[in-house]
Amino acid sequence: MAFPYLEAVLGFMICVYIFETYLDIRQHAALKLPTLPKQLEGVVSQEKFVKSRAYSLDKSYFHFVREAATIALDITILAFGLLPWLWKITDLPFSLYSTFVIEARHGFNKQTVWLFFRDIFKGILLSLVFGPPIVAAIIYIVQKGGPYLAIYLWSFMFLLSLLMMTIYPILIAPLFNKFTPLPEGTLREKIEKLASSLSFPLKKLFVVDGSTRSSHSNAYMYGFFKNKRIVLYDTLIQQCANEDEIVAVIAHELGHWKLNHTMYSFIAVQVLSFLQFGGYTLVRNSKDLFRSFGFDTQPVLIGLMIFQHTVIPLQHIVSFGLNLISRAFEFQADAFGKKLGFAASLRAALVKLQEENLSAMNTDPWYSAYHYSHPHWWRGWQLSMNLIRRQIRLKCRWSWLSLGLCNLEG
User: Fold this and answer.
1) MF terms per GO, please (predicted)?
2) Cα–Cα–Cα angle for 327, 49, 240, rounded to 5 degrees
3) Domains and CATH numbers, the chain
4) pLDDT at position 105
5) Widest CA span of the chain, in angstroms?
6) Angle at 182 between CA 180 and CA 186, to 5 degrees
7) How crowded is the C-beta side of 325, counted as CA atoms within 13 Å?
8) Which of 160-164, 196-200, 391-395 has the highest mean pLDDT?
9) Annotated binding-site residue numbers for Zn(2+)
10) Which of 194, 231, 269, 386 has the fewest C-beta atoms under 10 angstroms from its C-beta?
């Protein structure tokens, strides 16, 4: 008797939707609370709390609609065997509404409709440039891989990831944003001094014009070996008038590097990728799998897409586990910044970034435990202070899945 792959996938998708909707309802109730958490009284202004609450509720209402439409479309397409490229057709109108209604209503959106569609057009062109040779290579490897298919696929994707991580910040990212060297001055001197004290091989320090699209703030670092770069969003500089607060944010990010979080993350990516390709080799010739999804033939790319759906249960479990580890990493990075003497500045920076970006002040503990890769900011700060003392005794180390970029997003 053939295993009911399609029915199993559909059943799990519905169960996940019900569970995540339950968490969303809990979170929505937390967002509707009319008062600040006691820990934030006297720290966050009432005006900022009211704005944050309104922004979070708007996003929550929108999330309910978007998720309901997405699950309905996914089930319809899978159940009735429609073309796979229809799976994400609803994303564009939702992205438009999110950007030009919700983000604009709360003062975050800065991009024009022309810029929005120009970015989409550039993305399509990049897909046309990189997509065909990558797809052709994958098809060839699957056809010729034999018993070592998983190793060949993993090796190809490993080399491809190194290539993309190298050319993305140099060739692709500048197509969407303008990167300029951080001007000479005390901020640059402080960051360079901090990097030097940690033996961080900083080669370039950029400011990116994130304000052309959004007033949300961010900072990240990237690069291989002795060629590291740090990027600050211009909005981060605008929101943190005190230079020590910006340096504290960088200290947090350098903590990820110093504690080898980035390396652990890259290794985790490779291990999970290899296991995923190994699983694919076990079912790629299964006629029952293809027939379950309505295909009489066994095209290589269709097989890969179907396999992605069959491992959704494992992906959710892995994602939850990685979120736990990610939050542990964030505690460690906070502790690292504090040990460098940036405790007060980092706390002030986190408070300011959460205020300026209208991040949710009240969160449901179940929702945050399941979804958040970063600790909820005020709980995270309190717990990281306790973690410092525990780390001295335990010297714990964790690993986390990422793409090799350490980010702190507002």
Assistant:
1) metal ion binding; metalloendopeptidase activity
2) 65
3) 5-108+259-394 (no CATH), 179-239 (3.30.2010.10)
4) 87
5) 72
6) 170
7) 18
8) 196-200
9) 252, 256, 330
10) 386
